[in-house]
Design goal:
The protein is α+β, with helices and mostly antiparallel strands. It folds into 3 domains: 39 residues, no CATH class; 108 residues, Double Stranded RNA Binding Domain; 96 residues, no CATH class. The protein is built from 9 helices and 5 strands. The strands form 2 sheets. Strands 3-4-5 form a 3-stranded antiparallel beta sheet. It has a two-stranded antiparallel ribbon with strand order 1-2. Strand 1 and strand 2 form a beta hairpin. The protein is globular, with a radius of gyration of 19 Å. The two termini are 34 Å apart. 32% of the residues are buried.
Length: 251
């Protein structure tokens, strides 16, 4: 187990750089208790905190031999015209389990423009995540429930120091980091980071991604999320077309 903890911490530091001791201790605890895997995308480190991912929760459920999972749409609370959806999810840890229930809601007021039009799926995912977290005693909030990704985003205004470009941390005016948003999409859909970066540079019409304005990068992130949701296979094919263009893949 110590060896696994070391491997996971090493993988985390490759992704997110030097981590504070408290973060490393928390990760060790998660590895020991739940068998968390950084390389498989079970967790994300965002704004100084660990968040479990939907795929990570499903991995835990599979390792714990979850007996079943049921979701249902609560139609009396839904409004299709307003894209407002509410789901109930029940996790059965064993064949004789009474079930652990979680509810999830989503509408344009509590989801990011990145997932506009997919509110129904977001609501179901949130319900499943909450039910799984209850069933297996996971105190971490899930990425899909993370406020910075679900909250409506304010218009970005360039400051004299930023000149409207994406800074080293990928954020301006206290807005969620675009780099983190890209990271979440890449992990969720198992995309090749270098190919995504090449696609981004081409999309923004710049030699490298860091030269693009924040507005352009924000549009790209939204487009990438939409393409992944509509046809992941087509998106992967598009990304593969950049494999022969290494000169565009620069940090």
């Amino acid at each position: 187990m110590r060896r696994k903890s070391f491997v996971e911490i090493e993988a985390a530091q490759k992704l997110w750089g030097d981590l504070p001791q408290t973060a490393m201790d928390s990760l060790k605890s998660l590895v020991k208790r739940f068998g968390i895997s950084v390389s498989l995308g079970d967790v994300q480190y965002l704004d100084g905190r660990w968040y479990i991912t939907h795929s990570g929760l499903l991995q835990i459920a599979q390792r714990r031999r979850c007996s079943g999972l049921r979701t249902s749409l609560l139609t009396k609370f839904c409004d299709s015209a307003a894209n407002r959806w509410v789901f109930r999810a029940t996790v059965y840890k064993s064949p004789h389990s009474k079930g652990f229930v979680g509810y999830g809601d989503a509408d344009p007021s509590n989801t990011s423009p990145l997932v506009r039009g997919a509110e129904m799926r977001v609501a179901e995912t949130r319900a499943v995540n909450r039910a799984l977290r209850k069933a297996y005693g996971i105190g971490l909030c899930s990425v899909e429930e993370f406020g910075s990704f679900s909250a409506p985003q304010k218009p970005i205004t360039a400051t004299p120091h930023s000149n409207g470009h994406l800074g080293s941390n990928g954020s301006s005016n206290g807005q969620p980091r675009l780099r983190d948003q890209l990271c979440v999409l890449i992990r969720q859909h198992n995309l090749d980071p270098s190919l995504v970066k090449a696609y981004a540079a081409d999309f923004c019409g710049t030699a490298t991604l860091k030269e693009a304005s924040r507005d352009l990068v924000e549009t790209f992130v939204s487009t990438l999320a939409d393409e992944a949701a509509k046809d992941l296979g087509a998106l992967v094919c598009k990304l593969n077309s950049y494999t022969q263009q290494p000169e565009e893949v620069k940090s």
